[in-house]
Amino acid sequence: MSENSPTSRQIGAPAIQIVGVSRQFGEVRALNRVDLDIHRGEVLAVLGENGAGKTTLMRILGGLDQPTEGEVLRDGEPFAVSSPREAVAHGIALVHQHFALVPTMTAAETILLFRSDRARRCDRAAAAEQLRSLADEIGFDVDLERPVGEQSVGARQRLELLRALDSDPDVLLLDEPTAVLTDEEASAMLDVVRALAHDQNRAVVLITHRLREVIAAADRVVVLRAGDVVSPAAAVGERTPESLAAEMVGADVPAVRRQSAERGESVFAMNGVDAGQLRDATLTLHQGEIIGVAGVDGNGQVELELAIAGLLSPTAGHITLGDTELIGLHPRARIEAGLAYLPSDRFARALVGPMRCDENMVLGRTPWRLKGHSSDAADRMRRWTVKGHIGHTAESLSGGNAQKLVAAREFSDSAQMVLAAQPTRGLDPGAAQRLRQELIDFASHGGCVLWISADIDELLDSVDRLFVAFSGQLMGPYDRPFDRTRIGLAMAGAS
Amino acid sequence: MGYATTTVRAIAAPALSILAALVIGGIFIAWAGENPLSVYRLVVAESLFERTGWRDTLSRSTPLILIGLGLAVGFKASVWNIGAEGQFVAGAAAAIAVLGTVDLPSVIAIALGIVLGALGGAAWAAIAAMLITRYEVNDVIATLLLAFAAVPLLNWVARGPLKDPESFLPQTRQVGSGELPDIPWLDTHIGIIFALLAVAAMAWVMRATRFGYLVRAHGANRNAVYANESRRSSITVGILLIGGSFAGIAGYVVLAGEQLRVSGGTATGFGFTAIIVAILGRNNPIGVLASAVGLSALLVGAEAAQRQTGLSVTLMQAVQALIVICVVTGNALAERRGRTSARKSPA
């Protein structure tokens, strides 16, 4: 596609022009006089830390929010929509980060739900046929006849995109479309995204945390920081992940590299553990060691996590930490045995949303009589730079700050081991980097870490040894220096 | 969202809701041919300013406060114990089974009665707890159906094993020395003092102890509790046993303060009214106290109004139901407003 250089495609009026748009929430300015042109035929990446204003910008374009200042022009005409349906009528479709599909309905049925009333009444078989040909046209492998709830996360993300394309939008807004995908699924998805822009002449706006994807998929990139445009939209060209990260956080983010560590005695052991689809899981962690578990979502990582955390009873095997058998242990006893836990679903398992931050800080550690934990909680929140007041509810925190709150609590005990499941998911690069550093420091100080992640890059950078979860089995271990190709093949099931 | 607006909302919403209910109820009263304002004035005067009125209000609210406290704990934790009626009669039956046959000094008998009531109620709740935790029966169904089983069992007990051999009626012996004395100058029994002590104790427990923390956390996100604090079964069982104990103590208090014997008439629906008390009191001990006294006063006043004006007491029961519906709706609306304004802060 090199014959279609981005500049040659920008001829003609932009599909959307954002002129001096600001959005004020009380005291906080989420967007500050943002100017941006969105052109047909190109992929524009919007990059920024959590709270930089990316999502607010998307919401304004998608009809979910209104600017307090400035205006948005659609093909040169002033444009204001107050609902997603109106936005769709103007040819703008938004693909959410969170799934908006109905789990018990088939994919075709649930996509039809989103059609306007008149279109929905049409013949169902014909509509399914339409969707099928739409999927074929963009080369999507989707099963339209199976209930959405039975499909994999990756398939659901493809269905989300298909749903948005069903209205044949001129402008496509994608909010982290690859956040839940594996390397391979993500690159397939990005190929489709590029084709939608370059071959079908749509304007595509891509929000992503994965810097490599900006480089790989976007034609131009705009960087937001705290509501301001830091770097006006410009060709991706020669930019590197490092230079983009620096623009985004305002300072160079040193890449986290794990130094080779000295292994101490063994601390944690799993022997022949069967739990759900997990079969014969066996691994040993030593003092100062970090073991990673990579793999495509749904290959037993969740079972591994829950079995160690005591939330899923294994049908066979042993799990020991120090001298303590973890299976069947009371949750408090597990914490006392020295297991710190960063769950993959932090809002479901590590935090009580409606309760205050200081109350969340003692979850799992409550004394018989509650008193005087506030000052200690405030101290730890400061040390972990959690942005928020101890008296605020945990659910009012952003994803990154919520994870820091959990870490501040879990790391504060005399923990011997950290079970970190998708610890950086949903975090902006700055926060993710800090958390990775904390995990590495924890190991450097003699602790051990079991690190389950779908982000293969972070594992390759940070861990000492690596397993790959495939179809309920732990393949490996793979040792440094890592052979990326071999690991990638293991993730795909060809070992 | 500031703390002040939250507090204003917490007080203003129920106050406006009650006002709305009284206005709607007033329309029905006017339809029945009475002046709503004078009926309401009569209700207030009779229930709160007449000696017999507030005496009845206090004694009627006593079991509602006790049961309501236990239910509020459950509801706060999203454990739906709606079978307090069964736990109430089980407590009364357990107390009379022992107190009817022994003769002890009064203080010891009363203490024993409280313990027996708590054990009886807790035992009945334990059956529900087992069904819920071991067989995963829905909590609403398990507790409610056991309440319907308890009342006929009570009838049988009063006719059979515990029947007073000297009586022709299907009733047990009297509580004897376990009878609750009156408060001097108040001519109502000391049960209300137990209830007030229980309110103070539960207010403290809910605010300042691990148990209160777990109850609140379980209600808001039980998975976080199971992952960090407690096993799934132990917290549910604990909450049900506490609800059963409070209901059972209420059973003993009604037995020892008013009825003196257990009969088929012991089950008078306090266990069900207490559900309303807990909901109106927003599952807060002080709120339970206020709503129990308020609802009792309304009915005591309504009975007096029926005697004096011929206005049917069922109409006032309808007003009571209207208050419940309006307050619940009002709270839901206030919460929704609270949530939307909280969401307006930056994402």
Description:
The complex is a heterodimer of chains A (495) and B (347). Chain A contains 19 helices and 20 strands. By secondary structure, chain A is of the alpha/beta class. Chain A folds into two domains: 244 residues, P-loop containing nucleotide triphosphate hydrolases (Rossmann fold, 3-Layer(aba) Sandwich), CATH 3.40.50; 226 residues, 3-Layer(aba) Sandwich (Rossmann fold), CATH 3.40.50. Chain A has a six-stranded mixed sheet, sandwiched between helices. A six-stranded mixed sheet of chain A has the order 16-17-18-13-19-20, with helices on both faces. In chain A, a hairpin with a 2-residue loop joins strand 9 and strand 10. In chain A, helix 9 packs across helix 10 and helix 15 crosses helix 16. Chain A is globular. The two termini of chain A are 34 Å apart. Chain B has a domain of 231 residues. The longest helix of chain B has 31 residues. The two termini of chain B are 14 Å apart. Chain B is mainly α and 347 residues long.
Round the Cα radius of gyration of chain A to an integer and report it.
24 Å
What gross morphology of chain B would you assign?
globular
Backbone structural class of chain A: alpha/beta
Number of strands of chain B: 0
What kind of assembly state do the chains in view correspond to? heterodimer
User: Could you list the spans of chain A in which at least 5 consecutive residues all have pLDDT below 50?
Assistant: 1-10
How much of the residues of chain B is beta strand, in percent?
under 5%
Low-confidence stretches of chain B: 342-347
Strand pairing plus helix content of chain B: what structural class?
Answer: mainly alpha
End-to-end CA span of chain A: 34 Å
Q: Give the biggest beta sheet of chain A.
A: 6 strands, mixed
Neighbour order of strands in the largest sheet of chain A: 6-7-8-3-9-10
Instruction: Count every helix of chain B, treating DSSP H or I runs of 4 or more residues as helices.
Output: 13
Which pair of chains forms the biggest interface, and how many residues does each contribute?
A-B, 37 and 24 residues
